[in-house]
Specification:
Elements (H helix, E strand, L loop, with lengths): L2 H9 L22 H7 L9 H11 L9 H10 L8 H20 L4 H35 L14 H25 L1 H4 L4 H27 L12 H16 L8 H10 L1
Helix pairs in contact: 5-6, 5-7, 6-7, 7-9, 9-10
């Protein structure tokens, strides 16, 4: 082959430029250091992409919430991990919970001490504490029971703990919308006695819990090395059974309005 032909062939090769993100891939952080780095970034607002977090939240309450997990696939290809680097989504969720907690405290006219207790319980237990517990349990189930068996020549893949927590945060946002926003504006209706109030209130709670587990299922289904992720849909069956049982039991005197129960627990 002549020198000119060889030069012409080389000129047609696609060589990434300096502006191409694939030409200079981001440095990969060791898995052991990733959670520490993630929580350190919570203190630096300048490193957070707030707009991206808001866009993801809008997607989660749309008809195609699974699109949120596409970014996880791209992240795996470029940075070799599934979980978010940017803690903006978590930070925004905590801020929204605080604002909602203040609104509920004002609406129920509780004391300052009661308001602080409600805020701490909402953020540290309802969202963070239960989230850590659920993420850990679901991750263990996935890693122990759902990982596809590969040949011995392949390294066994596992669900990252931060990714499991990401799934919880994604799943919790529709819960926040229904139980902290929609419910707030319907309080004058759903706190009344009667069948209509019970149906509306329990429909909100059943919808929130079902939505939570559906998005949890989508998060684990997005991982190509897991199978039978339908197990994360099983809690929805329990939610539907309880919902129907309460409706059937209403004429018999044990129809519970979950909005009234929660109001008594937190504010009365």
């Amino acid at each position: 082959m002549s020198t000119e032909a060889a030069h012409s062939r080389k000129s047609r090769l696609a060589v990434p430029s300096g502006a191409d993100p694939l030409a200079n891939p981001a440095p990969r952080v060791p898995a052991a250091n990733r959670p520490l780095q993630y929580f350190q970034r919570l203190t630096d607002v300048r490193q957070m992409d707030i707009q991206s977090a808001l866009d993801q939240m809008k997607t989660l309450i749309s008809t195609r919430p699974q699109l949120v997990y596409k970014t996880s696939y791209y992240r795996k290809q470029t940075k070799n991990h599934w979980a978010r680097d940017d803690p903006a989504f978590v930070a925004m969720q905590a801020v929204f919970l605080v604002v909602a907690g203040i609104a509920y405290s004002v609406a129920f006219r509780i004391s300052l001490q009661g308001a602080i207790s409600f805020l701490l319980y909402t953020v540290l237990w309802n969202w963070l504490g239960l989230g850590l517990l659920i993420a850990t349990i679901c991750r263990e189930i996935a890693n122990r029971q759902l990982v596809v068996q590969q040949s011995t020549s392949h390294v066994r893949q596992q669900v990252e703990w931060l990714y499991a927590f990401d799934i919880h945060c994604n799943s919790f946002f529709p819960v926040f919308v229904l139980l902290y926003v929609v419910q707030f504006f319907l309080l004058p209706v759903i706190l009344q006695e009667g069948l209509l109030s019970l149906v509306i209130a329990n429909s909100i709670y059943a919808g929130a819990l079902s939505w939570y587990w559906y998005i949890t299922h989508l998060g684990y289904r997005a991982l190509p090395f897991l199978s039978h992720t339908e197990v994360f849909l099983f809690p929805i069956v329990a939610v539907v059974v309880c919902y129907c049982a309460i409706l059937v039991g209403y004429p018999l005197g044990f129809g519970w309005n979950w909005a009234r129960i929660m109001a008594r627990f937190y504010f009365m």
